[in-house]
Amino acid sequence: MWMSDVFMCVHGYVYMHLHVSMCIYLYMQAHE
């Protein structure tokens, strides 16, 4: 049970981190 919660938490963190990184990357590309 708790392993599933931890997995979801980590997955959510990684997903958000990648999303933010992609937004920053696209922003930098657009303003180059």
TrEMBL record:
Report keywords, A-Z: Membrane, Transmembrane, Transmembrane helix
Source domain of life = Eukaryota
TM stretches of this protein: 12-28
Has the keyword Transmembrane helix been applied to this entry?
Answer: yes
Protein name stated in the entry = Uncharacterized protein
What organism is recorded for this protein? Answer: Anguilla anguilla (European freshwater eel)
Per the UniProt record, the lineage of the source organism begins with:
Eukaryota, Metazoa, Chordata, Craniata, Vertebrata
